[in-house]
Amino acid sequence: MSPFIDHNNNFAVLTGGKRWECPECASSDVKMFRTYTTPMGVIRREMKCNNCKKQYKISNKTYAEMLTKEHRKNVEL
Q1: Which pTM does this prediction carry?
Q2: What is the DSSP code (8-state) at residue 7?
Q3: Quick one: pLDDT at residue 2?
Q4: For residues 65 and 76, which has the higher predicted lDDT (pLDDT)?
Q5: Cβ count near 77 (within 10 Å)
């Protein structure tokens, strides 16, 4: 039942992680599942964890921060 229950707290943030990490298992191995716009015109990103398969939503701003961090990590390599 866990994949179908929305949590009030993000486990990743509670343990010192980032907002785009999986709220269920705190994994950073996530991918964008889809992009959609709310009726108010706000762009949201639906993410999917590659470890526990949990789907969750983040803001477009948080997604942009994730891309910036990934870009910096790839440049350092």
Answers
A1: 0.73
A2: P
A3: 60
A4: 65
A5: 4
Token pair of 28 as six digits: 């950073």
Q: To which H or E segment does residue 76 belong?
A: helix 60-76
Question: Using an 8 Å Cβ cutoff, are 71 and 41 in contact?
Answer: no
The CB density around residue 30, as the number of other CB atoms within 10 Å, is 20
DSSP string computed for 8-70: SS-HHHHTT--TTS-TTT--S-EEEEEEEE-TTS-EEEEEEETTT--EEEEEHHHHHHHHHHH
Higher pLDDT, 38 or 74: 38
CA-CA distance, 73 to 77, in Å (whole number)?
A: 7
Statement: residue 46 has pLDDT above 90? yes
Q: What mean pLDDT comes out for the span 62-68?
A: 89
Integer Cα distance of 11 and 73 in angstroms: 23
